[in-house]
Amino acid sequence: MASTAQAPLRAHPRAVLAVIGAGAVATVWLWWHGTPAVSGFGDWLTNAGRITGLLAGYGVAVLIGLMARIPPVERGVGTDQLARWHSMGGRYVVGLVVAHALLITWGYAVTAHAAVTSQAWTLLDGYPDVLLATAAGLLIVMTGIVSARAIRSRLRYETWYYLHFYTYLAAALAFSHQFAVGAEFIMNTAARVAWSALYIGVAAAITWYRFITPARQAVRHRFTVESVTAEAHNVVSIVISGRHLDELQAQPGQFFRWRFLTPGLWWTSMPYSLSAPPRGDLMRITVKAAGDHSTAIRCLAPGTRVIAAGPYGALTAARRRRHKVLLIAGGVGITPLRALLETLPAAPGDLTLIYRVSSMRDVVFRHELEQLAERRKARVWFVAGTRDELDVNPLSGGELTRRVPGLIDHDVYLCGPPGLTSAVTRELLDAGVRRRHIHRESFEF
Amino acid sequence: MRRVILAIVSTAVALVLLLSFKTHTQPAVPGSPPASVVGSPAPGATGGTGTASAASPAGSGPAAGGATRTVTGKVVQTAYGPVQVKITVTGGRITAATAVRYPQGTPRDYQINSFAIPQLNREAVAAGNAKIDAVSGATYTSGGYTASLQSALDQLKGA
Question: Closest residue of A to B29, CA-based?
Answer without folding.
Answer: A39
